Automatic annotation (TrEMBL):
SUPFAM superfamilies: Hedgehog/intein (Hint) domain, N-acetylmuramoyl-L-alanine amidase-like, PGBD-like. Pfam families: Amidase_2. Residues 64-165 form the Hint domain. GO terms for molecular function: N-acetylmuramoyl-L-alanine amidase activity. It comes from Nocardiopsis algeriensis. PANTHER family: PEPTIDOGLYCAN RECOGNITION PROTEIN (PTHR11022), PEPTIDOGLYCAN-RECOGNITION PROTEIN LC-RELATED (PTHR11022:SF41). This is Hint domain-containing protein. One of its GO terms (biological process) is intein-mediated protein splicing.
């Protein structure tokens, strides 16, 4: 939480400094018991000690980046709210180094309770977001065409938020014929349903152009051969079709078998996410092109009567690399309610520049009383949707017992916490006493703070304890052991010794937690080692060997038996293996359905 959110002036009166040498961990001289209390107790503690800790004698730092309840995340099974996702789910992320997207496992979902807050709204054509001021964004800088990071509060006129990125995890070889892909698109476009099993009817006008009957007629010829009457096909179960003249032009009647082939890929006329993920880039373009020809203006927008069907088209367009938006249109004089999907001309938006050009685009703080949440992914990014607008945004970070980091003096200020290091090191307190619990959220918050200082502000990644500077018990034996064993220098999301359901798993175990472990191993490149059973929820020899090899890939000795149990150290190495493998351009495991 920033100084402003705490009700203080945005800038500390402490003298200017440029600490570059690392981060120093501290604790309180007495037990506080904050882990057993609400977060409000942490705020009271911090404010009551402000005079001592942020005056002329002390100082610490903080961040906390989150989005509102209405912001969704794109998973491999479509858009989901924060209440519908969990660790191990597969989500679309942005590799900010290359500007491409890819599927990665969700490492954590962090949700913070409802309470009065000040968030920053950015709202206008092409964009809607409501975030904390410190929420991070991967941006492109227009002036230098560089990729950088910014916060909601620090976004500048030249900062572009990405709305789309080509996906690197798409199949290279087609699983389905182009004709089947195209026919699924025509099937999707037909809103006049017929009972399952009775055969489908597709209607097209006799007109020139890509949306006319001639194109659909050709696809049916390619898939099922020439048209025939029902009686000609009664001897076998081969899919077939026939054509009749109707009020709206040509009517193409598909046999029950032909309809079943389509419904296998598009139940209820809505293509499944698994089917769409299995298409090559060229086939995704084919699918979206046919959909636009059949139900849209042929170029950039279309409407459909059901949200599920519109979202399927949007999903395909996103994987093809298009910037999209989804809007609900109320019923008109001759039409019912519609869902309109638009393919946008630009793949980026500059909120600050847009707000400077027109009052129709707003960038302003506002009060908010709901929950805020943030996901953790290996890339530190994710694809978000809010009010129909879609964009890539940054990982959200969390330092009290509940995972908040509370700002003291802030950036570029002389510290007053460790004599001999106040101008060279930043400082952070755990707000714990000698016997207090150090929670997993606190550990991860320190890690997030360290990563933020390293990545965004060029600070050394080294973490020290107060006792490294003077003779003192601070930061306590428990915290200092974590300093010495490198716990605080792990990336956010790695094992914190808390209640991670994967920690403690061993050979012989089974269940959903084992499935999550096996999915992570698959993302770490160990699909072969898992063997023929793959992700089956049973911790057997294949899972043990896959874990051992994943640990070996990041430098572990990987002796026999190193995969038989998921220890905290093994978990941290597995997460590192996932991140390393997914950063390789040739990695395709994430695309497997």
């Amino acid at each position: 939480m920033s100084r402003s959110q705490l009700g203080w002036s945005s800038t500390s009166p402490a003298s200017y400094a440029e600490p570059r040498s690392g981060l120093v961990v501290h604790y309180d001289s007495s037990d506080q018991g904050l882990a057993a209390k609400s977060h409000d107790a942490c705020l009271s503690y911090w404010k009551s000690t402000r005079d001592f800790h942020t005056g002329s004698a002390r100082g610490w730092t903080d961040i906390g980046y989150c989005v509102d309840e209405d912001t969704q995340i794109l998973t491999e099974d479509g858009w989901r709210s924060f209440e519908e996702i969990g660790a191990g789910d597969t989500v679309l992320t942005l590799d900010h180094r290359t500007g491409t997207s890819r599927w990665q496992p969700l490492l954590a979902v962090n949700v913070f309770p409802a309470r009065p807050r000040r968030l920053l709204r950015m709202e206008g054509v092409g964009h809607s977001s409501l975030t904390t001021a410190e929420h991070r964004w991967p941006v492109e800088r227009r002036a230098r065409r560089e990729r950088a990071w910014a916060t909601s509060a620090s976004l500048d006129r030249g900062d572009r938020i990405l709305l789309a990125a080509p996906c690197t995890g798409l199949p290279q070889d087609p699983k389905w014929s182009d004709a089947l892909v195209e026919l699924v698109a025509w099937f999707w476009a037909e809103e006049d349903g017929t009972p399952t099993g009775s055969g489908a009817v597709l209607h097209r006008p006799e007109r020139r152009g890509p949306g006319g009957a001639a194109r659909l007629r050709g696809v049916l010829h390619t898939l099922f051969g020439p048209p025939c009457e029902d009686s000609a096909a009664t001897a076998g179960d081969a899919p077939h079709w026939r054509e009749e003249r109707g009020r709206r032009g040509a009517e193409f009647h598909l046999s029950a078998r032909a309809e079943r082939l389509l419904r296998e890929q598009a139940p209820g006329r809505v293509p499944s996410h698994a089917f769409l993920r299995s298409l090559t880039r060229a086939q995704l373009e084919l699918f979206t092109g046919v959909c636009l020809a059949a139900r849209g203006n042929g170029r950039s927008a279309l409407g459909h009567g059901t949200r599920e069907a519109a979202e399927a088209f949007q999903f395909a367009a996103i994987l093809a690399g298009h910037a999209t938006s989804l809007r609900h249109r109320p019923p008109g004089p001759r039409t019912g309610p519609r869902w309109r999907v638009e393919l946008l001309r630009r793949a980026h938006v500059s909120p600050v520049a847009a707000a400077a050009r027109t009052p129709a685009f707003t960038v302003a703080p506002e009060s908010y009383g709901g929950r805020i949440w943030c996901p953790t992914t290996p890339d530190g990014t994710w694809l978000a949707r809010r009010a129909g607008t879609v964009y890539f945004t940054g990982n959200s970070f969390m330092c009290c017992a509940h995972g908040y980091v509370l700002e003291g003096r802030g950036l570029y200020r002389q510290q007053a916490a460790q004599p001999g290091g106040n101008s060279t090191h930043y400082s952070v307190t755990l707000a714990t006493g000698p016997k207090d619990e150090i929670t997993a959220a606190q550990i991860d918050a320190v890690r997030a703070l360290r990563e933020w200082l390293v990545q965004d502000h060029g600070v050394s990644g080294r973490v020290l304890g107060h006792r490294d500077f003077i003779s003192t018990s601070c930061p306590g034996d428990k915290a200092y052991r974590m300093v010495e064993d490198g716990t605080f220098e792990q990336p956010p999301g790695a094992n914190t010794g808390g209640t991670n359901p994967l920690i403690g798993l061993k050979k012989g175990d089974s269940g959903e937690a084992v499935k999550a472990l096996q999915e992570l191993l698959r993302y770490a490149g160990q699909k072969e080692a898992l063997g023929e059973h793959g992700v089956d929820g049973h911790y057997g020899d294949g899972t043990a060997e896959a874990l051992r090899l994943a640990r070996k890939s990041v430098g572990s000795a990987a002796k026999p038996g190193y995969g038989d149990k998921m220890t905290g150290h093994a978990y941290a190495q597995l997460i590192a293996a996932v991140s390393r493998h997914q950063s390789r351009p040739e990695s395709t495991e994430a695309a497997a359905a």
